[in-house]
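Thread amino acids onto this structure.
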């Protein structure tokens, strides 16, 4: 595709391009989680449940308010696409775009996962990330992105002309349908843009295209989060495996993922400021 710009630059082009960047959403007033208290709670965790997500499939799991969940690599390098909902109201769901605006393109310990409007509140707080050491590499890549939307059969057909049924979008729809007794079409209304757990992504420096590269995740690595509200989650073990070459494919080596649920000493969280729905009232 030819995207060469043929428009002549105006005389003041350099001046316009020299404008200083401004952070769109200053977060100095954003309430910060008490990570010290969450670390104390982490020292008391007792495992109460686990779910194995098969390769190229998705599974659901529940995390009660005040509990912790870990997404764990177990057999080989594998990325996962995560959806989160308010367990009591599926219309409140993870809002990857707002999470990206408030935090960054990739999330790690201390970042929060925000819910959709009109609630707009933290659904979960990331409390531990064994890949936190990775940072940003020489290609501009990092892990746990809130950029990509999820692989889906519609884009796959658009680009290849083929139907592939194990895309993460379809996996998440199927898992939610089973959990809630929905048909596929009903479940599809609630499936949303994801947190790409363990996926290493960025934008190319020349064409600025979204790229993926081999995930640095290894068995034993995990991403852990604290549930600020009662959560229903769904996780797809992406058909791209570690996303080193392709996705939406039966060719990539794929591995299961494990979700572990932990209960802390709840007495430690007696004064936790459980997030309320946004107090904004639209004009009448």
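Threaded sequence (284 positions):
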């Amino acid at each position: 595709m030819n995207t060469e710009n043929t428009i002549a630059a105006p005389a003041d082009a350099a001046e316009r391009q020299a404008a200083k960047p401004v952070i769109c959403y200053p977060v100095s007033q954003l309430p910060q989680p008490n990570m010290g208290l969450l670390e104390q709670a982490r020292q008391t965790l007792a495992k109460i449940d686990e779910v194995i997500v098969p390769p190229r499939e998705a599974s659901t799991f529940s995390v009660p308010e005040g509990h912790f969940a870990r997404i764990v690599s177990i057999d080989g390098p594998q990325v996962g696409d995560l959806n989160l909902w308010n367990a009591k109201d599926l219309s409140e769901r993870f809002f990857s775009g707002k999470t990206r605006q408030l935090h960054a393109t990739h999330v790690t310990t201390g970042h929060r996962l925000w819910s959709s409007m009109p609630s707009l509140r933290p659904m979960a707080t990331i409390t531990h990330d064994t890949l936190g050491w990775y940072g940003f590499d020489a290609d501009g890549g990092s892990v746990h992105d809130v950029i990509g939307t999820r692989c889906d059969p519609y884009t796959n057909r658009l680009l290849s002309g083929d139907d592939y049924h194990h895309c993460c979008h379809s996996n998440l729809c199927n898992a939610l349908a089973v959990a809630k007794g929905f048909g596929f079409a009903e479940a599809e209304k609630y499936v949303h843009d994801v947190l790409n757990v363990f996926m290493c992504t960025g934008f190319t420096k020349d064409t600025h295209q979204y790229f993926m590269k081999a995930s640095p995740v290894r068995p034993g690595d995990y991403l852990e989060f604290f549930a600020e509200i009662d959560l229903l989650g769904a996780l797809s073990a992406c058909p791209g495996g570690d996303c080193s070459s392709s996705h939406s494919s039966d060719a990539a080596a794929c591995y299961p993922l494990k979700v572990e649920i932990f209960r802390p000493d709840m007495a430690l969280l007696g004064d936790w400021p459980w997030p309320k729905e946004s107090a904004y009232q639209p004009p009448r």
